[in-house]
Design goal:
Layout lengths: L4 E6 L7 H15 L5 E6 L5 H5 L7 E5 L16 H6 L4 E4 L2 H4 L5 H13 L3 E6 L10 H12 L11 E5 L13 H19 L1 H5 L3 E4 L7 H7 L4 E4 L6 H12 L4
Helix pairs in contact: 1-10, 5-6, 6-7, 9-10
Bound molecules: 2-phosphoglycolic acid (PGA).
């Protein structure tokens, strides 16, 4: 491969204080500045975005958000629009993380958010993944449907601003990640669906990321043997030491 890998940290509802958030954002900056073929993205809780933005000043270091509303603006208490995020320097937005889907966010809503994100000129990270991984492969049909419906309305013209995060729900917050063989097989399947949806050229260029218990000890293996274009990281992304180790180990792989 000859393109950069993407390591996205999803801080979720962490850390518990702004002071800690500042420390993590600063620590990642020091390492991000030295990366050669890896891009680091951090997605803090909305309220920490400005303080993270002030520290995301290095090359290979980008600001992301964990969610967004598909609505443009107006009287919608508690929601945050693409314009608000963009004005604060956000360039990546996670759309449809499984924890949001568990709170009732549908494929159609995920598609609407992703469309709002790419039309605003930012990058949409569309999350998909099965709840149960059956040995017969029935989960693949569900995955195909989920990707197709979560990308409704996204044309090939936007493909360069889309990535798919494949996150098997059973491997999120778990004791171990999915096996690298399974990651390889499933990420190929996801690429094929992208090629069907966006056309061979554009579809095959869409980065496919893996998420689910990725950490400093397995990151390089997942990326090299699982052959994914990057990682979406939960727990290890708020452990600054572990996250920077992930960045370094993936960056040290052959590009
Ligand atoms: P985890 O979370 O790395 O803590 O398993 C991944 C995710 O939810 O994106």
């Amino acid at each position: 491969m000859n393109h950069s890998r993407l390591i996205i940290g999803n801080w979720k509802m962490n850390p518990a204080s702004a002071e800690e958030a500042k420390k993590i954002a600063t620590k990642v900056r020091t390492v991000a500045a030295r990366l050669k073929h890896t891009e680091a993205v951090v997605c803090p809780p909305f309220v920490y975005i400005p303080l993270a933005a002030a520290r995301i000043t290095a090359a290979h270091y980008y600001l992301g958000a964990q969610s967004v509303s598909a609505i443009e603006g107006g009287s919608h208490t508690g929601l945050v629009s693409t314009s608000i995020l963009k004005s604060l320097g956000v360039t990546y937005v996670i759309c449809g993380h499984s924890e949001e889907r568990a709170r009732g966010v549908s494929d159609a809503e995920v598609a609407a958010r992703a469309l709002a994100v790419v039309t605003a000129g930012m990058n949409a990270v569309v999350c998909v993944g099965e709840a149960v991984h059956d040995a017969e492969g029935a989960y693949l049909d569900g995955l195909k449907k989920q990707i197709t419906e979560s990308c409704t309305g996204l044309s090939a013209a936007y493909a360069s601003r889309i990535s798919i995060a494949y996150e098997p729900i059973w491997a999120i917050g778990a004791a171990a990640a999915m096996s690298t063989d399974q990651i390889y097989e499933t990420s190929l399947f996801v690429k094929k669906i992208c090629a069907d949806l966006f056309g061979q050229e554009a579809g095959m260029r869409i980065p496919v990321l893996y998420g689910g218990s990725a950490n400093a000890s397995n990151a390089a293996e997942i990326v090299s043997i699982g052959k994914v274009d990057g990682l979406l990281v939960g727990r290890e992304s708020v452990n600054a030491t572990g996250f920077v180790e992930m960045l370094k180990s993936v960056d040290a792989l052959e590009s």
